Amino acid sequence: MAEQPLLSVENLTVQFRGDAGWVNAVEGVDFAVGAGECLGIVGESGSGKSVSALSILKLHSPANTRYASGAIRYGDRDLLTLPQRRLRQVRGGEIAMIFQDPMSSLNPVLTIADQIMEPLRQHQGLSVQAARRKAIELLDMVRISDASRRIDDYPHRLSGGMRQRVMIAIAVACRPRLLIADEPTTALDVTIQSQILELLRELQREIGMSVILITHDLGVVAEFAQRVVVMYAGRVVETASVPALFERPMHPYTEGLIRAVPNLDEDVHRLTTIPGSIPDPSMSITGCRFSPRCREAVQSCLEKPPSLVDAGAGHLARCPPRIAAGGIS
Amino acid sequence: MFRAITVRLMQSIPVLLLVAVLSFILMHLLPGDPAVVIAGADATPAAVERIRRELGLDQPIWQQLLSWFLNLAQGKFGSSLVLNQTVLSAVAERLPVTLSLAALSLAITLPLGITLGILAAYFRSSWIDAGVMMIALIGVSVPSFWIAILSVILFSVTLGWVPSSGYAPLLTAGPGPWFASLIQPAMVLSLFQIGFLARMTRSAMLDVLDQDFIRTARAKGVSEWRTVGKHGFRNALVAVVTVGGIILSLLIGGSVVVEQVFALPGIGRLVVQGIMARDYPLIQGTMLLFGFAFVLINVAVDIIYTLVDPRVRYD
Fold this sequence. Notes:
Chain A is an alpha/beta fold. Chain A has 13 helices and 12 strands. In chain A, helix 4 packs parallel to helix 7 and helix 5 packs across helix 7.
């Protein structure tokens, strides 16, 4: 990415209120997405990928959340310090978001029409009639058949896949410059998953928007994204272009994730896993956060937190022993 | 929909029969004798016995109950033993008082209770939340007779703004005096209900505000006001309607204490008078009418559910 990125997250630290004070949910996170690019963010549950994504539009509950450090640069603005009114113009207008669970993300007591027309009227000031016409077009665009009749339905009459299509229609209504998709296919079954991803890809091309795709599925990333950020325990542990990451994973955690994807060409009797689980955010670990689960951990890994180092060609990893050894073990 | 309402009303018939039988049995379990009350303290036993026979109270209880039901089947609620008027006319005379008080009280309760509940939920764990919950706690805990007496001392005796007691009918006395005679009891009555409604609205809103679709609304760039009012409150409305129905039921039954303190000739006072005098037909009749009113309110609440939540359907 030579030119200026569309959006860049810099040194973001988000804290949640816990029983014993504020706890870092993500710490010092950096990533950037270029215009028209698709960035994948991967990690297991609790890695902080969704927390980072929700922070971009400041969608965390303000009472229990603190943005302790960092900036979210979007053009010449910092979304973290933007006044509420101007942030609202960005939300849904320039940056839109879809969520993991389409079953609960739509308002059950409002019609589909109401919910799609809302951003159109809010950001583009369309009249009710014009917004309705546009909403029907959008439903057509996300391939909901019989759109002019479906539009007056309530969400409970739609299947999960259809609801996610409606969510996508709402998100792309104002032709955003960036779409943040937080595990958009996790709650859907496999055949629907690929349809939704295909739809997202088409819309991305058509609108020319950037996409940040949050997922725990490396297969989805390989198919969809150009660059990847791998997160672990609230930190970025590796970031690289998709081919580089799959060919030459630098961090042992990334490598574990790639190995854990079952290969269809081989007879697999036991799925490969990474032993252990992600540490609790309130637990203090002096050294590398992955070291308790890492087979290659050496003394220095336990002593001081590793920094993210460039291993060349924009491939960054937070594993000094590996980088010193030249990458692949 | 129409079928569902008809079915609900039919289902209420056994409930109403049960209400009638139970109130009949309860009244006869109480010690005391209407004949003695009517005859007066100095009456001879023979006179009391004669009155008892005239009223049919010498018959076995099951026969009294049966004849009451037979009359009811012909639409006759009977006459009061002590008031010298029929049960229906006694109720009709006092109903406007109770309905006026109920309407005014509801008009105070609904906007205040709902607003306070929403504010408390939105600003949860802040001083606003704590303040609202404190008011609500006082409202539901402080006995209404005490508040009523304090209120009379302040607003009627010291300030002289409103009369301390009595009722001015809307049609004969005009809206001004009518309002003046009811505003104080209505406010005293509302204190409890505002507390009750605010607490229920708050808990319903707390549930709703944590839902994913609220986050969706914010992600669309919708204002906080619309997010809470349209996306949030519309979903909490089912709970609010339920509580509204309960409050209305309580109000229709008449507030015994508040009507007593402010000397309002409403239904609540009528029932108390009836119980004091062992006026069996009056108590039976009013109980049955109350039962019917509760059934109607509940059916109305059920119908409102379908308007408020598209997922609710009766068919």
